[in-house]
């Protein structure tokens, strides 16, 4: 690639960024890093009515979470600034003046009320919404005199009857008939530019070499091409990224669950898993490889491998991938990630701060089966499996005593087995996993029950659940006192049940 690669992520701060927005940021970042180019963040805040407080912070926070560092933009500055479009209004006005001067744009004095009426009429006639060009061929005086507002907008004069073509690096040659395009607005009545004008002017002035953006912008591109042409500027290369769909192949939306990137962070997803997963939303190295480190992605990312077809965002798949990353990390690191979640999510009656030494013994037992950092302490985590760790910290466990009774064993025999087990555990020398295993296997034999039956009853007694980490390790970490207390409670629960 001979020219200097300069790409931009140009979000509008109208809401909390969703995974699709950040996928665009990621692809731009990967493209820049792969080619040794520059990654620029530009905030497209020209729509005053849709501006949302806190949106810019959430956008930058999302980038920071995934460690998508930017070379120019908010906070870091750069020689092509300012990087907030609202601080560049005079620049857009200069370009609008140029277009007005050369007849490629005109003032339109039609009021919003008139345009609204027109659109309703078009809808009634089942026509596409389009400006009727009332002011297009009038002199400035006639347009003003015949208009119904004093504050005009500036509209672009679409050249009639031509074919607008451009090359998209994913889709190849794309073309539109100019007649289907509206005389779109360049400068609004509030003096702010529209997306089209500001985007084109800034991509030019910021020397953007490639525009990587979502497919939904493809229909804007012919307008941009006409603007570049009218301004006698060279357009950048265009790369439209495939749509992100839900598992039902409909455009990804709230209906499919969480869509905001930071919600995934808060739900206990790791940034490295999210980065990996998002990279697969429209890009693939081959038809097999799914796990990529950041370095792998930078090394392999090229536009040739971006696909045309919609990418399916599947939370189950993402959850699986998160589990892979969790399992593969050193347990020290796992503890660092999980601690803040557990401190926050475990029931409030458990004393804080959690005992670090105890936590360091508990968590390695859970790491293997953890799919999100949040499910350790929180019942409502989106993986639906939490809380996995609470029984290690809770004094009293809540469970149905019926679940203590294993298949093909009576409640009486279960209570008896637990009573004898409790006595033996009380007398056991060292309460460690090896000793526990020998003791309990021998005991099952002696009692004439299956190991699965005895271990099952004990598992529920000490953890309150039927699925838990390996029993002997769990008992060792819980410690003798807790185990004995819990088994006593289980026996009492079974007896109370029999009396009822
Ligand atoms: N401001 C647009 C957005 O919110 C940018 C589209 C583009 O990249 O041209 O996505």
Describe the structure.
It is a single chain. The protein is mostly helical. It has 4 domains: 6-84 and 244-312, Rossmann fold; 88-241, HUPs (Rossmann fold, 3-Layer(aba) Sandwich); 329-392, no CATH class; 401-499, Arc Repressor Mutant, subunit A (Orthogonal Bundle). Helix content is 44%, strand content 9%. It is built from 19 helices and 11 strands. The protein has a 3-stranded antiparallel β-sheet. A hairpin with a 3-residue loop joins strand 5 (163-168) and strand 6 (172-177). The N and C termini lie far apart (80 Å). The mean pLDDT is 95. Residues 10-12, 44, 195, 199, 213, 217 line the site of glutamic acid.
List the helices and strands and how they pair.
Blueprint: E1 6-9, H1 19-34, E2 38-41, H2 55-65, H3 89-101, E3 105-108, H4 112-124, H5 140-146, E4 153-156, E5 163-168, E6 172-177, E7 185-187, H6 195-205, E8 210-214, H7 221-230, E9 237-241, E10 244-245, H8 261-266, H9 271-279, H10 294-300, E11 311-312, H11 315-328, H12 331-345, H13 356-367, H14 390-393, H15 411-427, H16 433-447, H17 451-463, H18 471-478, H19 480-499
Parallel strand pairs: 1-2, 8-9, 10-11
Antiparallel strand pairs: 3-4, 4-7, 5-6
Helix pairs in contact: 1-10, 6-7, 9-11, 12-13, 13-18, 15-16, 15-19, 16-17, 16-18, 17-18, 17-19
The site of glutamic acid has 8 residues, from helix 6.
């Amino acid at each position: 690639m001979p020219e200097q690669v300069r790409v931009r992520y140009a979000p509008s701060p109208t809401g909390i960024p969703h995974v699709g927005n950040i996928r665009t940021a990621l692809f731009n970042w990967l493209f820049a890093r792969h080619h040794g180019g520059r990654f620029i963040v530009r905030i497209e805040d020209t729509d005053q009515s849709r501006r949302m407080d806190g949106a810019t912070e959430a956008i930058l926070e999302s980038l920071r979470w995934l460690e998508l560092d930017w070379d120019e933009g908010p906070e870091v500055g750069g020689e092509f600034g300012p990087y907030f479009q609202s601080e560049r209004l005079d620049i857009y006005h200069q370009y609008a003046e140029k277009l007005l001067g050369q007849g490629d744009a005109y003032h339109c004095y039609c009021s919003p009320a008139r345009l609204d009426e027109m659109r309703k009429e078009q809808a009634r006639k089942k026509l596409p919404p389009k400006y009727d060009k009332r002011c297009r061929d009038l002199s400035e005086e006639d347009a003003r005199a015949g208009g119904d507002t004093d504050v005009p907008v500036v509209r672009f004069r679409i050249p009639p009857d031509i074919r607008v073509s451009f090359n998209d690096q994913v889709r190849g040659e794309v073309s539109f008939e100019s007649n289907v395009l509206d005389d779109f607005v360049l400068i609004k009545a509030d003096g702010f530019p529209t997306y089209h004008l500001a985007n084109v002017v800034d991509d030019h002035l910021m020397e953007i070499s490639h525009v990587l953006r979502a497919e939904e912008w493809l229909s804007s591109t012919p307008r941009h091409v006409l603007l570049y042409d009218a301004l006698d500027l060279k357009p950048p290369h265009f790369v439209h990224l495939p749509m992100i769909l839900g598992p039902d192949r409909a455009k990804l939306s709230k209906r499919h669950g969480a869509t905001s990137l930071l919600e995934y962070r808060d739900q206990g997803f790791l940034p490295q898993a999210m980065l990996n997963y998002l990279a697969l939303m429209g890009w693939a190295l081959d038809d097999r490889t799914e796990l990529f480190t950041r370095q792998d992605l930078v090394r392999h990312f090229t536009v040739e491998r971006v696909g045309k077809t919609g990418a399916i965002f599947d939370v189950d798949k993402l959850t699986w991938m998160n589990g892979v990353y969790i399992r593969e990390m050193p347990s020290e690191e796992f503890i660092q990630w999980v601690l803040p979640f557990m401190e926050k999510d475990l029931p409030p009656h458990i004393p804080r701060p959690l005992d670090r030494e105890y936590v360091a013994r508990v968590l390695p037992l859970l790491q293997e089966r953890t799919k999100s950092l949040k499910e350790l302490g929180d019942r409502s985590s989106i993986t639906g499996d939490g809380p996995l760790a609470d029984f290690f910290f809770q004094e009293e466990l809540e469970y149905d005593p019926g679940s203590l009774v294993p298949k093909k064993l009576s409640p009486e025999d279960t209570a008896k087995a637990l009573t004898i087990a409790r006595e033996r555990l009380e007398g056991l020398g060292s309460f460690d996993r090896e000793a526990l295993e020998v003791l309990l296997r021998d005991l099952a034999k002696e009692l004439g029950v299956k190991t699965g039956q005895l271990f099952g009853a004990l598992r529920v007694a000490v953890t309150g659940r039927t699925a838990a980490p390996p029993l002997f390790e769990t008992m060792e970490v819980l410690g003798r006192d807790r185990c004995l207390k819990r088994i006593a409670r289980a026996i009492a629960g079974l007896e109370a049940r029999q009396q009822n």
